[in-house]
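Quick start: what a row looks like.
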Amino acid sequence: MSLTTNKTRLVDWLELARPEHLFSAISNCWLLVLMSTHIEPTSHQNPILMQMPLWQRLLIATLIPTGLGIFGFAFNDVLDLKHDRTFRPASPLAAGRVSVTTAASFAVGFLLVAFGAATFLGRLSQFLCVITAGAILFFNLCGKFLPATGLISMGLIRTLTMFICVPRMGFAWPACMTMAHIIICMALVYAIQGRRPRMRGSDLGQLAAGTLFWAVLLVLFMVLRQTVLLHDYPQIWVGPLIALGLFVLVSIIYLKKRLPDLRARRLTAQRYQQLAMLWLIVYDVSWMLSLHQYTDALLLTAVGVVALAIVIFVSIQRHLSPESGQYRVRE
């Protein structure tokens, strides 16, 4: 087997795994695991997780989002095969470079990896893992066909994933911020692409109401746990607010570009989606910097650097590949 063939297969599997989504999910899970150690009282921690050495905690917090993420992405591509053969003929499954059987086995195998990792964390974590897998199935089978429902589901799936390792954690602001970021950014991607069914006024109303509903529930959860404000860490919001302001500025500059045709809109949507997902890691780093946990911030920065390198590698290889074309988000 030639080196070129091996590289092509590697790119296919990386494309299937959606690295910008996958690594941001890993970073989000690492963030809550690390934060629970620093700011949560013992009653809000997962005692099983806290008994493990740090490397083991981070390993489990890597396996769970990886397993659930690849399960969702591979399952989505199997279900969308007919659609992708028309609109994404260069994608690994549609082009025949990855078989349906292999992708389905891949999905089931990684789901079992996530369930296996959750068994080390106790019943509540196992329950959340099952609920998250169910939410992924719902999204892929019907949620994604309803604009508002699908977008809200994406934010909730990430939020649930973040809490699997630390289900008792009271400080939910990072998860709330992540959920809102995903919903809003993916709604912009949806609109830029001009995907169907088109979003109407009623869909926007449902999207706003659904996002507000789940955000209020998270705030009420924090009120009950008395963790809405962390009086011992008054500076904790400095980093995240700066990161948010920078993202808004970058988004305005990037999205002001004129898009002359459908191809330009798709490329812009794809790049913006990658930026939005990778920016979640910037938020994670900013939370740690605000807590003055510089070693943890460095760990999360390393995740971001690896994620960015892989995204660039996949994009370059797909651009150079004559039979593959551009790496595009789903229509």
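That is the whole record. The CA atoms of residues 51 and 57 lie 9 Å apart. DSSP finds 13 helices and no strands in the chain.
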